[in-house]
Structures are given as C-alpha cells and as structure tokens.
C-alpha cells in the first residue's frame, strides 16, 4: 500500500487532463462517501478512459487506484488493456502482482487479471508454480487460486504423466501429506486425472492406483470425509461397484463390537455395499449412523433405510 | 453487543438495515462501494421477509436503481460504475420486489428489452455459460444471475437454454456437487447457483438428488451451523446456500432443523440489530440477509416465505 498521498491536481505531469467528477444524484439512499484522494484519482481515471489514453502515467494511475481499492474491477481491466496495447512485458507485470496477490488473495479481480496477463505469455513462466505454492501455503483452500490453477493446467497442458517431482500429482501429494483433509487438493487430483476435455488414454491401472492412494490416506485419518468422497468418486467412475473395498472399510467398523467403530464414512459405504444382499446389516449400520455416529443427519440415514425396506417389501 | 438465542429480534434488524445508508462516514462504507446495489437488494429482501417492506422509501429505491444503469442496458454497482451481471440481477430483483418493473419501460427508451439484450449478449455461444461483463470472466454465479434476471423479465427465449443446461451438467462433480466451472471444486454457493438455474430452466430431472442431498446435508456441523465445503468453518450465509438447493430438491428435512434455527439465532446482535457470520462477530447486511432468508426457508414463525430459487 502506497501511503504517500498523490495529488494529481498539483502534478505538472497531469496538467493537460481535465478530471471528470463522479456524477451523483441528489438521492440520499446508498450515496457514496469517498476519501478525497480516492475520489480525485478516479476522476482522473474517468478522464483517461474517456480519451482512451494508454500511457505510462495511466499505468501509474491504475496502480494507485488498485492499491487503494483492489475490488474496483474496471481499473484492472483498463490496466490489462494498456499492457496489451503498449506491448509491455507481461512477466514483469506478474512480478509486480505478487505483493498484492499475497495481500488480497480472496480478491476476484487479482486472479482474473493474472489469467488475462498469463494468456499473452506463450510458455509457463518458471516462477509461476512456486508463486502459487506460496499463495496456497497461506490458504490451501483458496477457491480462486484453485480455479486459476485449473485454468493454468489446461492452458499450458500440465496434465501429469507421472508422480515425479514437479508434476501436479507430486504437488497435490505434498499438500495432502501436510493436511489430508484438504478437499480442494482432492478435487484437483480428480481434475488432473479425469478432467481433460479430450478423452485421453488412461493407464489401465489408474483406478487401482487411485483406490490404493485413497485407502492409504484414509488410514491416516479414518474420519475424513474428503478422502472417502474421493474413494467413492473413483469407484463410481470405474463403474464396478464398491464391493472390492468392503474388506478395507471393515477395518474401521464392527457391528458386533461398537467400541471398534472408528469411521462414520466406513459405516456409510458399508451400508451401501450391503444394501442389496445383506440388508439387515445395512439397516443396522444406518441405525448406528442416525442414533450415534451422525445424528445430525438422522433423517437422511432413515431415508436410506426406508429405501432398503421398500425394496425388501417389493 | 448482546447475543440472544431464543427469538428473532425483528424490530432491531429492521432498524439496523434502515441505518445502513446513514453510516457514510465509515471507511468500510466506501470500501464496499463495489457492492452497493447488491447491498440494497440484500437489505430490501431482508425487510420484505421480516414483513416491513415499507422501511425503505420506494421512490428513493427506484431512483437509486436507475442511477446505476449504463448505456448498454446493464447496471453497475453504483452510479458511474460499469455494468456487471451481478448488479443487473440485483436491479431487476429489486424492481420486481417493489413491483416497479414497469418503471423500466416508463423511464428508459427501450425498457426491459434493452436490459434483456445486455444479459443475453453475455452468453458464450460455444459453451453456453455466461460472462460477468463484456470482459469475459465466467462463473456459474453469472450464469444463474443472468438466467434469473432474464426469467423475471420474461425473456428467457433470447438465449440458448439447451447450451446453458449442458454447461451446468458439465459442472457436476464426482462427489455429487457442483462447482464454478467444469472441474472446479464443489461449493455450497455454486451448488445453489447451478440448482436454481436448472430449476428456472425446468431441468431439475438432471439433478442426482440423493447424492446432492447427501453432500449438502453433510455440511451441517455438530453445533448446528453449515459450512460451504468439507472441513471448513461454519458461516451463517450457508443457511441460504445449503438450505435453498435442499428445498428445491425436496430434501430440507435431511438437516437438523432445530439445531440450525438455534445456530442462526445465535448469530444475531439483539441490541444493535443485524446478524453476523458466526456468534459474536461483526454484523453486516450480507449475512443479515442470508440468515433471515434461511430462517424463512425453515418456516420460522412470523416471517414471509421466500422462493428458494
């Protein structure tokens, strides 16, 4: 944040520009109170935009306004326009963005702007992935950053061909090792493996590999919804049912000895596996969920049970 | 600040919303300039649900809305701001709410047709989704906003609805939820936008209601609050984002109603009015609106019912 006050009216460099003041109705409702500095800067921005001026001083003006109010989306768009018109170095602009991105990581404009600058760069800048790692180290679940990273994967075709260092899978694994409950990282894993628009040739054992991966992660934290959801998602994609993980899920559940129940998600998956041929056990699991292990969703579990009962009666 | 968990302090909340446009000396006030028209919609809707639609002046509201309209037919966040779909939907919703849609035809040359054209032009003809403005950022929030506004203007036929539906379908995730774009993580607020858009387009049959309902109900935490994604903190705004799609797919009873009601009420400031994201936090109009809208979905006594879409 630039703390020095900038006064355009007193600056010779701006003497030829007539600022355009904000037109405000007389209505009191939702009227806007500005600071003088912000109000003056935006008056000069309106003037510059009206004459479509793309210049060095216009660049400085946009930076000044962005520092005061990074949520002002028009100013970002105008800045991108200037860069493209004047063919300014986009990689340098990315460097400049680093501080504001780290200070305002949840700002929509920062990431949309980054994407628009990145799309005039032909190859992935070497510092980009380490920059994103830095942002994600501050908040590993930032939705804008992940959306941007998906765009980056598609744009520069960063689809993983191995789990080696530098690959998306390697990076995701490092995040999940740090926090196995990071749902964003799980989602990104699914995206980089199955999210390609073009139907690509998947290695035959991709399902086995991912089922094993999810099971290993579940074992480190059996009550983690994200890993179980991923496992269920992979099983669904494989279209072979969930029977193959029954034995695995039973490690965390015992219907005979409740003291051995360590995961409501395992109960849930087992109830699904048992719903067909072992419906009594399925109902027992669902009762355990609604009475003891997830009572907040009792109605949902009882609904599942009613489906089983209805199938039995039919 | 005083917190109470048993009753909704209706009068206090009405006064809080009325006081919002008199706090112009606050730094916070001009920093949120980019949300002004949304803020008016949130405040006004909360007042309607609370049964006090008259608490803001109808004439001043209409004047303010029109002062935000741009040459291209769209609306900006505040006078002088560029048009964006998120403010345009707020403008249309406000006008519908106070039964002033005909003002569009009375005050402007081409009336609602021009607003509708602005919105329809934001659709990407290839993918079916919508950009937020002429600059092109896409997000299912924009798609929902455009479709909602076009539906209120009775102009849905101006867009390629089939393409929009296909795009929404592509946003379905492996866990049964929806994200901001194909492949983006499931998020309660994005689920609201996708499900509400499908509802408006008459395509709810495409929703896997059991898996979606399961994912949404899993958002409730033991303290009764709801979160937006797994392993995230609860926030009262999800009382709208989670409950609304649950209501649309008829699974509202899959969450614990009593616990959720108690949670929402615990977020209110019963002394100065307004509701916050969590108990004891600062109130704001955004959370006040979504909390009250959530209470309405749960049929809290004395509130006007709200359409979940």
Automatic annotation (TrEMBL), chain A:
Keywords annotated in UniProt:
Magnesium, Prenyltransferase, Repeat, Transferase
One term of GO molecular function: protein farnesyltransferase activity
Any single GO CC term annotated in Swiss-Prot or TrEMBL for this entry: protein farnesyltransferase complex
As cofactor, the record names:
Mg(2+)
Q: Which PANTHER family match?
A: PROTEIN FARNESYLTRANSFERASE ALPHA SUBUNIT/RAB GERANYLGERANYL TRANSFERASE ALPHA SUBUNIT, PROTEIN FARNESYLTRANSFERASE_GERANYLGERANYLTRANSFERASE TYPE-1 SUBUNIT ALPHA
Similarity-based family: Belongs to the protein prenyltransferase subunit alpha family.
Q: What is this protein called?
A: Protein farnesyltransferase/geranylgeranyltransferase type-1 subunit alpha
Question: Per the UniProt entry, what species is this protein from, by scientific name?
Answer: Gomphillus americanus
Automatic annotation (TrEMBL), chain B:
- Domain (Prenyltransferase alpha-alpha toroid): residue spans on this chain: 8-309
Q: What class of enzyme is it?
A: transferase
Q: Note the InterPro entries from the entry.
A: PGGT1B-like, Prenyltrans, Ptb1, Terpenoid_cyclase/PrenylTrfase
The GO cellular component terms are:
Rab-protein geranylgeranyltransferase complex
Key word Transmembrane present: no
- Cofactors (names): Zn(2+)
Instruction: Give the Pfam families listed for this entry.
Output: Prenyltrans
Superkingdom of the source? Eukaryota
User: How, per the record, is the cofactor bound?
Assistant: Binds 1 zinc ion per subunit.
Catalytic activity reported: geranylgeranyl diphosphate + L-cysteinyl-[protein] = S-geranylgeranyl-L-cysteinyl-[protein] + diphosphate
Q: Which SUPFAM superfamilies match?
A: Terpenoid cyclases/Protein prenyltransferases
For this UniProt record, the keywords arranged alphabetically read as follows:
Metal-binding, Prenyltransferase, Repeat, Transferase, Zinc
For this protein, the Enzyme Commission number is: 2.5.1.60
**GO molecular-function term, one example from the UniProt record:** Rab geranylgeranyltransferase activity
Q: Name one process (GO BP) from the record.
A: protein localization to membrane
Q: Which family does it belong to?
A: Belongs to the protein prenyltransferase subunit beta family.
| Matching PANTHER family | GERANYLGERANYL TRANSFERASE TYPE BETA SUBUNIT, GERANYLGERANYL TRANSFERASE TYPE-2 SUBUNIT BETA
Known function? Catalyzes the transfer of a geranylgeranyl moiety from geranylgeranyl diphosphate to both cysteines of proteins with the C-terminal sequence -XXCC, -XCXC and -CCXX.
**How the protein assembles, per its UniProt entry?**
Heterodimer of an alpha and a beta subunit.
Q: What is the recorded name of this protein?
A: Geranylgeranyl transferase type-2 subunit beta
Q: Which species?
A: Gomphillus americanus
Task: Print the organism lineage.
Answer: Eukaryota, Fungi, Dikarya, Ascomycota, Pezizomycotina
């Amino acid at each position: 944040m630039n703390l020095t006050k900038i006064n355009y009216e007193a600056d010779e460099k701006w003497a030829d520009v007539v600022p355009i003041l904000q037109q405000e109705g007389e209505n009191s409702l939702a009227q806007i109170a500005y600071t003088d500095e912000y109000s003056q800067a935006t008056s000069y921005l309106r003037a510059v935009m009206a004459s479509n001026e793309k210049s060095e001083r216009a660049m400085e003006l946009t930076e000044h306004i962005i520092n005061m109010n990074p949520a002002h989306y028009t100013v970002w768009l105008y800045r991108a326009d200037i860069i493209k018109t004047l063919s300014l170095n986009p990689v340098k602009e990315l460097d400049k963005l680093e501080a504001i991105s780290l200070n305002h990581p949840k700002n929509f404009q920062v990431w949309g702007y980054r994407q628009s600058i990145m799309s005039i760069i032909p190859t992935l800048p070497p510092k980009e992935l380490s920059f994103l790692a830095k942002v994600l180290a501050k908040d590993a679940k930032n939705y804008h950053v992940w959306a941007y990273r998906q765009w980056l994967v598609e744009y520069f075709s960063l689809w993983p061909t191995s789990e080696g260092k530098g690959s998306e899978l390697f990076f995701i694994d490092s995040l999940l090792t740090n926090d196995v409950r990071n749902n964003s990282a799980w989602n990104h894993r699914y995206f980089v493996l199955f999210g390609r628009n073009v139907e690509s040739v998947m290695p035959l054992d991709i399902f086995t590999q991912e089922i094993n991966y999810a099971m290993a992660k579940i074992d480190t934290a059996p009550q983690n919804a994200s890993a179980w959801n991923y496992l269920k998602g992979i099983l669904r994609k494989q279209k072979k049912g969930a029977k193959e993980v029954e034995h695995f899920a039973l490690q965390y559940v015992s219907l005979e000895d409740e003291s051995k129940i360590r995961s409501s998600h395992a109960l849930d998956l087992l109830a699904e596996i048992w719903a067909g041929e072992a419906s009594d056990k399925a109902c027992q699991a669902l009762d355990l969920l609604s009475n003891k292990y997830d009572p907040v969703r009792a109605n949902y579990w009882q609904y599942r049970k009613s489906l089983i009962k209805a199938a039995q009666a039919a | 600040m005083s917190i109470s968990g048993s009753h909704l302090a209706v009068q206090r909340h009405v006064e809080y919303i009325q006081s919002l446009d008199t706090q112009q000396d606050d730094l916070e006030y001009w920093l949120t300039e980019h949300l002004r028209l949304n803020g008016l919609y949130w405040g006004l809707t909360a007042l309607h649900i609370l049964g006090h639609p008259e608490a803001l002046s109808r004439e001043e509201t209409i004047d303010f809305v029109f002062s935000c309209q741009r040459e291209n037919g769209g609306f900006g966040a505040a006078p002088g701001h560029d048009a964006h779909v998120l403010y345009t939907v707020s403008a249309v919703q406000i006008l519908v709410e106070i039964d002033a849609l005909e003002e569009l035809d009375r005050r402007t040359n081409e009336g609602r047709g021009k607003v509708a054209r602005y919105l329809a032009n934001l659709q990407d003809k290839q993918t079916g989704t919508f950009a937020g403005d002429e600059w092109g950022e896409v997000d299912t929030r924009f798609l929902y906003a455009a479709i909602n506004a076009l539906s209120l203007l009775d102009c849905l036929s101006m867009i390629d609805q089939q393409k929009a539906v296909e795009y929404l379908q592509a946003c379905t995730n492996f866990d049964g939820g929806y994200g901001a774009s194909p492949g983006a993580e499931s998020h309660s607020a994005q689920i609201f936008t996708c499900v509400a858009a499908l509802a408006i387009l008459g395509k709810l049959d495409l929703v896997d209601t059991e898996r979606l309902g399961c994912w949404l109900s899993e958002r409730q935490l033991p303290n009764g609050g709801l979160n937006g994604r797994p392993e995230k903190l609860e926030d009262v705004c999800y009382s709208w984002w989670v409950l609304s799609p649950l209501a649309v797919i008829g699974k509202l009873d899959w969450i614990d109603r009593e616990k959720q009601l108690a949670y929402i009420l615990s977020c209110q400031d019963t002394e100065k009015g307004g509701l916050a994201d969590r108990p004891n936090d600062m109130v704001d109009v955004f959370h006040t609106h979504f909390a009250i809208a959530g209470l309405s979905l749960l049929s809290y006594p004395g509130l006007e019912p709200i359409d979940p879409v």
